[in-house]
Amino acid sequence: MAPPAAFAMPPLPAGRWLDDDGHEIPFGSRWGMGGPPEDAYSRVARRARRRRG
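-> structure tokens emitted (53 positions)
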């Protein structure tokens, strides 16, 4: 049996993300220091993420 070959990640093109107005969003600065709005991510898909209370 031959040893497994090392995986080499293929080169990926740099993504360019735009806001609703078409302006480029610099990586990591979409929401600023405050984080995303409370409803930005669904909590319904995963039961563990649902708000309790």
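The CA atoms of residues 4 and 10 lie 18 Å apart.
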